[in-house]
Amino acid sequence: MPALSVLAHHTEPADPELLRWLTHTIDSVLGLGPLPVVLAIAIVIAAFPLALGLLAVRQRRRTGR
Amino acid sequence: MKDKPAVRSGRRVFYGWYIVGAMFFMMFIGVGARVGFGLFVDTWTREFGVSVAALSGVASAGWLANGLSQPLFGSLADRVGGRIVVTSCMLVMGLGVVAMGLSPSIWVMAFFYAAVVSFAMGGTLFAPAVAVMVRWFLHKRGAAIAVLSAGASVGGMLLVPFMAYLLVLTSWRVTWITIGVIMVLVAAPLLFLVVRNHPSEMGLEPDGDAPEVAGGASDARNPELVGPLAVEEWRDAYRSAPMWLLSFSYVVCGVTTATISIHFVPYAIDQGVTTSIAALAFGLLSLINMLGVLGVGVISDRIQRKTALTVIYAMRGVAFLLLTLIPGAIGLWVFAAVAGFSWLATVPTTSALTAEVYGVKRTGTLTGVLSMVHQLAGAAAVLVAGITFSVFGTYAYAFAGMAVLLMLAAVATWLVNERACSARFQGVLTLPRQAPEGA
Q1: Contact residues on chain B for A23, CB-CB shorter than 8 A
Q2: Distances from the Cα of B143 to the Cα of B93, B140, B150, B205, B369, angstroms
Q3: Fewest CB atoms within 10 A around its CB: which of B202, B253, B279, B311?
Q4: pTM of the model
């Protein structure tokens, strides 16, 4: 599927084979199902912007800007 | 380049790094979602009864829209400021992604993907982001752009498994709607809340440095380092040699990265290597790529950027040569290890050098133009490499040709007389007439 791979700068579409290997490895190492993995990544995705936003706002308030 | 003493209150982090963090997340979610597009092809072919070729056409249309929109949004960021561009584009992209998840047919989804999501995505990539970064950072420009660039790599590594697992748990519609909701409710507000176009909006200086203006003057507006080739209009940059040299090398970058992203696995199969080994080698390349971009970004702030670029292109050229000369799996692993360091490292270095030679005023536009030619050249190269393989029955000629092109790119970047034309070495601190434009 060549066209899918030229979407933009230095990014390649997910390779299904690599992804299967990755998910299989995650499953076997962690011994978890899809739901805990989704929740764990979701927490990271939510926590990073939340923490960043709070820290930025706190700094702006402290400096009065 | 003379470093100025930094003025910070206590242990406070320079606010520019918060903006880097917000843009890191922007790249993470945007690029991650795009990379994840490939996950859904099997599902869509089954559900909608369309061919893989038709979906490839959709992806190509999206790719074209994305490439063409980057100079437009870069120019807009130069004129009205990057904050409104990245925030509104993230919002539109998120709504488009939600609409994709709700689409009743493949053609409605194709419209939203190509005309809305991919087009708006151009406003969340390097052009507007770099336009903001170069205004916030002088001495640590390379490092700042490198960190946000790494967001693209992390997005591929973290968001794609997230989408894959979510697809297993739910459906493709729920997966896309979830990503769209994150864009609309998390990423867009974060960008609006954190990003500021220019440090002067917060009474700060680039890098958090002490105010220092030619003649000892002080002003609420930030002084800017202006080099001898600084331009008022982006077209003027193409009247001088450095812009052509940088454009040529960036085209070679696009040619080589796009070709490998498509033809790496077919090449491996041609060499008798299994697909999974090839995919793993490519995974290694992606991992090293993230380390490489961060390392090169930091190093390029301490040496001449053209030196870093020369090493990057030469290294990649050697990697292509080794790929041609070493047969089998060993060649793939060697290539992944050597080329990985150079893969994304061209972005912060080229962007920062362009800003330092031509000034920050049109950096967004110039970065957008460079990104566009990078993509178009990459697409053309993919076709040429495929034709070469069909004609000669081997990738050796295509890869050897790319090794030559990369060596020429290394020479081209070395020919940029950075000490004579970069604001880092020849810059004069001047107050902008209006800072920032339109802000």
Answers
A1: 161, 164-165
A2: 27, 5, 10, 17, 22
A3: B202
A4: 0.86
